[in-house]
């Protein structure tokens, strides 16, 4: 962990208390609803909202009451209305758009709000999405962006829609740098004292530096672990630079959950190793051997190893999982290793089924394919294992066997698998891998790959909306805590980013650039 010296701790505490007092005053002294919401939005944008959860909750409770009362500012001012909608995840009338066509900031806020959709029949939001997208593009092309908004912010929002692909740490850094350069811009009639803006920026800078230092320490730890479990000796293993995994993990899990984040990265690397063994390097004997070892788990010595590659992969999974299981048992107050072992076995069996299809030239139906493909995507060993380390106890054990948890897992799997299949279609069909390429050609009424892809996109969008509905619904009856639900949604966001284009996140060069910005590069302030 990263530790601050006494002076830094006092300075950080003073700034937190100053901002907290501003939030308190905003409840009683600031009349503008916009000002209160803007302050909450700013704290979220620069990555320090976690310090003010109670104060923010009170402001949002107030905003929701005004919404129900149809407060004039809330309903008639488009930017306030859209900001409240996005934060509160509610609905707003079409009439608010009149009179704001030249206000880029208001249009951008409305565009972001239109991305918050949890039902299939929200046609008004579909229209607002199309309209604001086109208007923002026109303003970019004609250089008519309002001075209160940076063109880069509009470009980023259009490329990475707000509730589907935004990666928070990267956005926090951009916002800190932008606010530091231009000040925290609010309407002239709104209230935000200059010294409060300075305290917010100073606190955000300190928070970013602390997080970046922590990521570097974690990076060193994972690098040592890769060598200890000998993953670096697997010649067949496709592996991205570790920086990229920390870039993605920093958005999947908040900075304070170091153990869960490291486990997420470790299992991403381990599932890649297992997948490459099944997909690229392993013989039929090796694949059957690995499954038998997973079946025996602690009694694996009864089986033995048919190759050095199998031995390396198994022990990397087995030893790492047992260590994670020991830490998770302390959090959950019960043993979870049998569940972790079962997840690895289920994943390997699904990968084996796909390997058999490929070897036999079998073209599965969609009904055959999806139950296998959802599991073979290998989120099983990644997401549930990290959940066990997050803090909330998933008790009783029936929670992880229940319908709410199962729905969250299924919908996340569907989104990630279909996004992956669309991105990898060209490469895998060219390699003769029937199972994945047939997915795009086996859909009802699809006469071309493009039509099949469009149908899959609709399926992904519908699954994302259903997933978000499960995530934000309070008291779902399944006992899954909200922080755990958020991990499923964050996985879906990362998948949207990773498979944004056919070759992944725009390009490896851009992904490395984003990773460096979060993990290594200093703030430009």
From TrEMBL:
Keywords: Lyase, Magnesium, Metal-binding, Plant defense. It holds the Pfam family Terpene_synth_C. Coiled coil: none annotated. InterPro entries: Isoprenoid_synthase_dom_sf, Terpene_synth_N, Terpene_synth_N_sf, Terpene_synthase-like, Terpene_synthase_metal-bd, Terpenoid_cyclase/PrenylTrfase. GO terms for biological process: defense response; diterpenoid biosynthetic process. Residues 227-465 form the Terpene synthase metal-binding domain. The keyword Oxidoreductase does not apply. Its cofactor is Mg(2+). Residues 11-158 form the Terpene synthase N-terminal domain. One of its GO terms (molecular function) is terpene synthase activity. Gene3D superfamilies: Farnesyl Diphosphate Synthase, Terpene synthase, N-terminal domain. Belongs to the terpene synthase family. This is Terpene synthase metal-binding domain-containing protein. It comes from Oryza nivara (Indian wild rice).
């Amino acid at each position: 962990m990263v530790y601050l010296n006494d002076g830094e701790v006092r300075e950080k505490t003073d700034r937190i208390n100053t901002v907290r007092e501003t939030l308190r005053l905003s409840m009683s002294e600031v009349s503008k609803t916009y000002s209160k919401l803007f302050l909450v939005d700013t704290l979220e944008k620069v990555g320090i909202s976690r310090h003010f959860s109670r104060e923010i909750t009170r402001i949002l409770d107030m905003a929701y009451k005004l919404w129900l009362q149809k407060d004039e500012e809330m309903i008639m001012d488009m930017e306030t209305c859209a900001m409240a909608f996005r934060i509160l995840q509610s609905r707003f009338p079409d009439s608010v758009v009149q009179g704001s066509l030249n206000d880029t900031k208001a249009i951008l806020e409305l565009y972001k709000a239109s991305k918050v959709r949890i039902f299939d029949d929200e046609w008004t939001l579909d229209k607002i999405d199309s309209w604001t997208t086109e208007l923002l593009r026109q303003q970019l092309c004609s250089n008519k962006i309002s001075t209160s908004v940076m063109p880069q912010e509009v470009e980023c929002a259009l490329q990475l829609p707000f509730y589907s692909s935004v990666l928070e740490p990267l956005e926090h850094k951009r916002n800190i740098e932008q606010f530091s350069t231009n000040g925290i811009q609010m309407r002239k009639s709104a209230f935000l004292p200059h010294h409060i803006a300075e305290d917010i920026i100073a606190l955000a800078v300190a928070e970013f530096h602390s997080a970046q230092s922590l990521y570097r320490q974690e990076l060193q730890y994972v690098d040592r672990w890769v060598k200890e479990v000998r993953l670096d000796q697997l010649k067949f293993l496709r592996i991205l630079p570790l920086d990229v995994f920390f870039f993605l993990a920093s958005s999947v899990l908040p900075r304070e959950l170091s153990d869960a984040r490291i486990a997420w990265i470790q299992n991403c690397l381990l599932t890649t190793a297992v997948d490459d063994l099944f997909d690229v390097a392993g013989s039929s004997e090796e694949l059957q051997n690995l499954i038998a070892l997973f079946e025996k788990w602690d009694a694996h010595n009864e089986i033995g190893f048919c190759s050095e590659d199998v031995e390396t992969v198994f022990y990397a999974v087995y030893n790492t999982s047992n260590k994670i299981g020991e830490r998770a048992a302390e959090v959950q107050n019960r043993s979870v290793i049998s569940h972790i072992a079962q997840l690895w076995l289920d994943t390997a069996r699904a990968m084996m089924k796909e390997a058999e299809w490929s070897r036999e030239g079998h073209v599965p139906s969609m009904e055959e394919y999806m139950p296998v493909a959802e599991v073979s995507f290998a989120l099983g060993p990644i997401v549930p294992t990290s959940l066990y380390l997050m803090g909330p106890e998933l008790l009783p054990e029936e929670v992880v066997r229940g319908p709410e948890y199962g729905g969250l897992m299924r919908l996340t799997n569907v989104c990630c698998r279909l996004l992956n299949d669309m991105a990898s279609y060209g490469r895998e069909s060219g390699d003769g891998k029937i199972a994945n390429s047939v997915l795009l050609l086996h859909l009802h009424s699809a006469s071309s790959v493009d039509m099949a892809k469009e149908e899959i996109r609709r399926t992904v969008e519908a699954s994302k909306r259903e997933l978000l509905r499960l995530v934000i619904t309070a008291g779902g009856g399944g006992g899954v805590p909200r922080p755990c639900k958020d991990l499923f949604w964050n996985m879906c966001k990362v998948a949207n980013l990773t498979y944004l284009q056919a070759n992944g996140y725009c390009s490896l060069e851009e992904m490395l650039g984003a990773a460096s910005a979060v993990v290594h590069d200093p703030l430009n302030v």
